[in-house]
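Re: beginner question about structure tokens

> Can someone show what the tokenized structure looks like for a real chain? I only ever see the sequence side.

Sure, here's an example I had lying around. Input first:
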Amino acid sequence: MEEREVLLEVQGLTKHFVVDRSFFGRPTSVLKAVDDVSFKIYKGEALGLVGESGCGKSTIGKMLVNLYTPTSGKIFYNGVELTSLNKKQRRQYCKDIQLIFQDPYSSLNPRMTIGDIIAEPLIVNKVVPKSEVENRVNYLLNCVGLANHQRNRYAHEFSGGQRQRVGIARALAVNPKLIVCDEPVSALDVSIQAQVLNLLDDLKDEFGLTYLFIAHGLNVVKHISDRVGVMYLGKIMEIAEKNELYQNPMNPYTRALLSAIPSVDVENKTERIILEGDVPTPINPPAGCRFCSRCFMKTEGCDKYESILKDQGNGHLVACKLYDND
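And the corresponding structure tokens:
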């Protein structure tokens, strides 16, 4: 594989939330949302991150944009360790890493016109002179497929797809290098999802962007991602190039997710893998493999030994005892 430039790298990223405290204020119950996660995002690529609800994928995105402070671990952006910076220093990098929220309605101020919503980051960050703000807002609206005359309307006057386009324009306003797309199409109608995905794909090329694309299903990230990572209960189970992952899934959990994708190809349709049991609680996760209690391919030691991500060739990383050769 040719050497690619790393834009962002996380090492051992962990985020725990205190659920309950004792009378003296000491934590007695901790939710392990993200537990020792490491991966790289290369410049100009779209890395898809998928998994069930509550697996920690959105928490990772919010740590990257500084909405959450990591419990431990490191975040490197262009070689700079963001987790070691103070608040003032960290703020300087907030422009470079932006977030597109899952719910386009609740993320937009209902008392501001969309023109003011898009103009606000331009003014606060002094991206352009005040005399050029209006032209810049009109340009961004055109980029996301909205008309200039719509800039004086409020969020409730738009459809869900149009609101998400406003959210995308706001994220683009400060000329970011990396955009975290936190399930940007999950709240939209299926007929609109493809339009927004195509828009994000076009903007990626036009603005030279890099994406971390978070979604529930592998069928959504397939159209926009270059590489795909699969998460389960706070851990990354597998990362590989898109075609490699879909054609040669190694982790049993990835196989189960792929089998759940609806297909119209009757002849080549794969047998649906039904997972039994419930997802363990992140407050008290299993001692061994996180997926062991529901795995249909578990072997001796899976409930005691936790596998780490290992390269099985061509950048295909998998965490599973079946591929531990040591």
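Each token stands for a local structural state, so reading them left to right follows the chain. The longest strand covers residues 6-21.
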